[in-house]
Every structure is written in structure tokens, then in C-alpha cells.
Design goal:
Length: about 240
Amino acid sequence: MRALRILLIVVVILGGLFVIADRVAVNFAEDEAADRLKTTENLSATPDVSIKGFPFLTQVAGGSLDDIEVGIQDYEAAAGNGAQKIRIDDLKADMQGVEFSGDYSSATATSATGTATIAYDELLKTAKSEPTQVAPGVTANVVGLSDGGNGKIKVTVEATVLGTKLPEPVSVLSTVTVVDGEVRVKADGLPKFGGVELAESRVRAITDFQQKIDGLPGGIKLDSVQAAPNGVEITVKGSNVRLAG
């Protein structure tokens, strides 16, 4: 009985040491992965990297990790032709089936899904914020974007008719979608400016706009978008996503 107790104690001690060694190793790996991702994506701040699953060491021995979560607070994505940038907030990605090279210099996820937010002030940069003529004597421009409720964006437009600015801006509820990597905002109806009837194409040249978003981390792509209180919430997904290297 005494020998059995000693054996059990040894097993418990070794098990505890293994757990400690496993946690130390995973913490080290998370820090290394975060530093590599920061360099690879040219980030201004170190991202959060969390390696899920236990034990970590046996996953490493098998050459792949089941699940890695990555968090990036502020990411500057390419917009349009790449000359402009648009800020993506609170990007969180869940990467599945991460395989890495023998020297651990690169890692690729079989699939990835995630969420992020584009603030309304960032999206507003893509709208026509400078007064544009929509008819003889009538100019208009978008001055604000906000949550319109029920998944809609409220687009606020300011207009000037015959040199006189209308006392109150007009607004229209718009639908936001993702098409071929573009965030597209399209008015559900057409506002009137001071009772003046305008051609639909002229009005939509102001109220409707789109923003191409490229260069998201690891090659992930926009999947869907919905209006929310603080901005448009986007979902992203991808396959063979490069985590580092």
C-alpha cells in the first residue's frame, strides 16, 4: 500500500509539472506568435493571441494546433485603390486547424471566421461629404451616418436650394450589404430637398456609396455586414489563412 501511495504521489507530481510546463510553453508560444503577427501585418500594437486546447505540447508534437484566437484593436485596411486606409476596430478572428513549418517560422490556418466593426465616422469618409450639384440651383452632401435601427443605416444629407441652406438636414434609411469585398450603402427611398423633385440617379449619386476593403490580415475576406449602434458590424471568413511568416 505504501508503494502504491508513493507511486500515486509521483504521478500527481509529474502530472502537475507537466501542466506547469505546458502552460509555460503555451504562454511563450502566444507571445512569439503575437510578435510575428505584428511584424508580418505591420501593426502599430502587439495583437492578442490565445492558443486554445490542452495539452499544448502534444498538439505541437503533432505539427498543428486546433484553435487559435487573434484580437487586433485597430487595423488599417486598404480602401479602394490601396492609396487610402480605413480603420477596422476590434477585429477578432478564430483560426481552426493551424499548421506550422518545422522551424515554426510560418503558420497557416485551414479556416478562419471573425468579427469587427467599422465606425460610422470611418465609413463617412467614403461618402460625398463635399457639396455636389444634383440639379440646377441645388447642391447636397452627406453630413452624417448613424444607426437607423432594424439593421439600417441612417444617412443624413444637407442641401442648399438657390443659395439658401435648408434649415433642417434630410435623412433616409439605407440598406448596407457586402458585394465582392465592397461595403455598399443604398437608400431604401429617396429624400426630397425643399420639395424639389429630383431625378433618382442624381439623388442616389449622393445618398448611395460603396467602400472597397482589401488587405485584411492573413487574406481573410468580408462576408457580411449589418448596421449597429457604434458602426457597421462585419463578419469575415477565409481559408488557408496565413497567421505568420
